Amino acid sequence: MNLRASISELIGTFALIFIGAGAAAISGDLIVVALAHGLVIIGLAYAYGHHSGTQINPAVTFGLLIAGEIKIATAINYWIMQFAGGILGATALSFVLGGSASGLGATQFDQTTITVTQALVIEVILTFFLVNTVMNTAVSGKAGNLAGLAIGSTLTFCILMGGPLTGASLNPARTLGPALLTGNLSQLWVYIIGPLTGSAIASLLYRNALQDES
Hints:
Elements: H1 3-26, H2 30-52, H3 58-66, H4 72-97, H5 116-139, H6 147-166, H7 172-182, H8 190-210
């Protein structure tokens, strides 16, 4: 186990939930929420990228595993750290805000507005965009030092579109923490299946069509 990488994934996911979900709980303004998430990714990509790649998202880790960029043992370790970071982030947020204020910025959808299938498709498509950017910038190495900016910007524009509909999680750890702390787990499966599916599609596309031949 790479201790530096594990710590990086734990702190990174903690920050994403504490700052991102915190902004959703406190402000609720779409632009504020989108920027909060995107800026966390950008900042921590440069802080911790050299340790773990700052994946801080089980769906991204899943995509890297499918693409053959990491080993299963590494992926499992990162998943543990990411989910732990998400739960700890939501716990800290609950403490500072006092209980489950404003739902702790939980990602969920209104079934009177969109169907479960629509919510699932939104999460698939938006996660595809995110992981597609990860693959074609950070993994390919083509974006150099600008990869973190590209990935954070992608998360920002995905939230600007999907935020009003599903909360634009794109990240099972982002959803799990607040869901556990508020006791609302009924929609959790959508935010696991959707992101993992979108990630798998992006990763297979990269591996089989977009990856440069070595």
